[in-house]
Amino acid sequence: WQEITDPQFTDIEYHVADGIAKITINRPEVHNAFRPETVRAMLHAFKTAHRDKSVGVIILTGAGGKAFCSGGDQRIRGEAGYTDEDGNEGLDVLELQRLIRTIPKPVVAMIAGWSIGGGHVLHLCCDLAIAAENARFGQTGPRVGSFDGGLGVALMTRLVGQRKAKEIWFLCRQYDAQQALDMGLVNTVVPLEKLEEETVQWCREMLALSPTALRLLKASFNADTDGAAGLQELAGNATGLFYQTAEGQEGRNAYLEKRDPDFTKFPRIP
Ligand code: 1HA
């Protein structure tokens, strides 16, 4: 891995290697709980990976082997929300959830240890999830005075069904890696020492496939769950492909050349 440093990468690490970007939440002393600065850094890191044409797959993980992420840092929860070092309240974590889903590259959650609360919702937002045997999953919102009724409910329900999703949210129990696998919360479970090797192997398999096919598939899955916003994403991809055709370019050329467009040469494919 090559580490990329950036003054905006507060609380996280950003590495790249052979087409993979790895974003690591680096606050192991609090099981990688996030504060506003952490979320801002993750937004910047995901946008960096999005724009980097050499990156095809993104891994999201946590430092230390004992936690993926334990959600919002409860120590800095103020009267109305989470407070940054300048005293401003507000956590852009819902924006981060959306970004993970709309980036047109697969995002893989690599989970060792705790995936809890808002950290668990981040894992739900990732496209695939590889868990170590020590992984533990759960929501805590109703215990600590919070809840994520947005993607935290919608994606969980899609993944495990409404009965199980209600159990997870209503009882705030914890589930081990095997239980998570059995209910479809993760794709596979491996020994902790094999976690990164296995995750990289999954990434390499995706890197060998058509980036455009994967991009359109991700948008299609989102379209099924995200209503008009999902269709916007899928249609945006269709526009992007159309721009690359002679037919799309004829419209642009005609406009720039101040003439009528001639679309007669383009077949109306049945
Ligand atoms: O619900 C939302 C949102 C909803 C809508 C919109 C935005 C949202 C944004 C965020 C969230 C949330 O994330 S709410 C849920 C917040 N998270 C939690 O309630 C999890 C709290 N942590 C735990 O329950 C436990 O730490 C644990 C089950 C993950 C692990 O337990 P364990 O192994 O016994 O470790 P523990 O000793 O508790 O933790 C180690 C250290 O990490 C402790 O610090 P120490 O006492 O050694 O100084 C512990 O306090 C700290 N820590 C762990 N998680 C957090 C934390 N400190 C602050 N915030 C945490 N989340």
Automatic annotation (TrEMBL):
Its EC number is 4.1.3.36. Substrate binds at residues 70-74, 82, 114-118, 140, 146, 243, 258. PANTHER family: 1,4-DIHYDROXY-2-NAPHTHOYL-COA SYNTHASE, PEROXISOMAL, NUCLEOSIDE-DIPHOSPHATE-SUGAR EPIMERASE. It comes from Terasakiella brassicae. Converts o-succinylbenzoyl-CoA (OSB-CoA) to 1,4-dihydroxy-2-naphthoyl-CoA (DHNA-CoA). This is 1,4-dihydroxy-2-naphthoyl-CoA synthase. One of its GO terms (biological process) is menaquinone biosynthetic process. The gene is menB. PROSITE patterns: ENOYL_COA_HYDRATASE.
